[in-house]
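Example 9 (inverse folding). The structure is encoded as follows.
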């Protein structure tokens, strides 16, 4: 049976689109006249898809799949709803404004149809239900693409910000270094220049985290350059580096077995540095940090254990999420600086090496365990 609502949408789509334009111009401040004129095709495309959906017979199984979102178009597909979501993200629309557009479209279609029909017959109520299902489906698809667009814009912004900050920061650090070298240790402002250099070093680490974050999100993972190396050597160097900044930090290193493998030396050093800094920041005062490196047949296992307040079970998974931080538990960690990317980057680097990282936390302590294959697998870049 032919849907009367489908026929109406096709015949009245120009009028429906004009009603949507009037609403957008009045209630959506981000929608300028030129932008509205260029986006009429999105609305007309969605109306035609709704009409096609209404004309297509639907089983109960298909209705159930649609209600669960299983019938939604992929976010990578070239549909009017997806294009509309991308467009609204690029124009800076808020989620509420995007949803308001679909509310207006729904209301205008039903109002104009009712005005045209005068009254609805009982069998036309199925058209209303099918129409609402189709609108909800298009809204879900458009919202998914909108969210992807917003996230990509944020990642690009962070990447550009991190890249552009490096040059002026490098100039500041170089100037402080030159002044300290030229004037000597007895210079009146040597302590001030030293503080500038220390602050610049911390800022450089934060910028590096931002760049790695955007690289992992936009580029499909953090790139690694493998070469044969000794994990124990990197461990000792990383511990010495941490203790030079925090002499009160007590780290105990235990090694066993063959600790050689093909890894990215700088990236593995970054993993150990972030795990040790995290253990120091959240560990109990004056309690030792235990680092164990164990060579197995095809893997090397590294564990970093600190004493302190256990991590609540509900938060164990989210500590690897970007920009998530737990409150530091030690007094000496007041000077620690982080944007909450350390563990996210650790996990990304470990996964780039084909390994995995787990965490266990109880009253006995918190242990991060990294398992690294000695070499890349055949299907790994």
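The amino acid assigned to each position is listed next.
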């Amino acid at each position: 049976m032919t849907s009367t609502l489908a026929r109406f949408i096709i015949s009245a789509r120009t009028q429906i689109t004009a009603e949507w334009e009037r609403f957008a111009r009045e209630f959506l401040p981000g929608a300028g006249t030129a932008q509205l004129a260029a986006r009429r095709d999105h609305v007309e495309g969605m109306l035609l898809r709704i009409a096609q959906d209404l004309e297509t017979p639907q089983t109960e199984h298909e209705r159930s799949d649609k209600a669960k979102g299983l019938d939604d178009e992929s976010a990578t597909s070239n549909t009017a709803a997806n294009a509309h979501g991308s467009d609204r993200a690029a124009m800076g629309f808020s989620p509420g404004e995007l949803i308001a557009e679909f509310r207006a479209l729904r209301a205008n279609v039903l109002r104009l149809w009712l005005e045209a029909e005068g009254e609805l017959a009982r069998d036309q109520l199925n058209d209303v239900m099918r129409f609402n299902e189709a609108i909800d489906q298009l809204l879900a698809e458009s919202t998914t693409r909108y969210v992807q667009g917003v996230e990509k814009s944020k990642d690009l912004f962070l990447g550009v910000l991190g890249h552009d900050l490096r040059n002026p920061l490098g100039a500041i650090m170089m100037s402080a270094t030159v002044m300290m070298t030229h004037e000597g240790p007895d210079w009146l402002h040597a302590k001030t220049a030293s503080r500038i250099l220390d602050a610049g070093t911390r800022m450089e680490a934060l910028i590096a985290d931002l760049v790695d974050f955007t690289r992992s999100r936009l580029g499909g993972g953090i790139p690694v350059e493998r070469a044969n190396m000794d994990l124990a050597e990197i461990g000792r160097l990383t511990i010495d580096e941490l203790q030079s900044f925090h002499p009160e930090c007590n780290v105990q290193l235990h090694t066993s077995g063959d600790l050689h493998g093909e890894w990215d030396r700088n990236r593995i050093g970054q993993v150990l540095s972030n795990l040790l800094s995290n253990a120091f920041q959240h560990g109990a005062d004056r309690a030792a940090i235990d680092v164990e490196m164990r060579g197995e047949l095809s893997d090397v296992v590294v564990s970093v254990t600190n004493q302190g307040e256990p991590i609540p079970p509900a938060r164990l998974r989210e500590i690897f999420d970007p920009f998530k931080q737990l409150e530091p538990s030690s007094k000496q960690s007041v000077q620690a600086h982080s944007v909450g990317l350390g563990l996210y980057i650790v996990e990304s680097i470990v996964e780039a090496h084909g390994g995995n990282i787990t965490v266990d936390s109880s009253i006995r302590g918190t242990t991060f365990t990294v398992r690294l294959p000695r070499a890349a697998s055949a299907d790994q870049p």
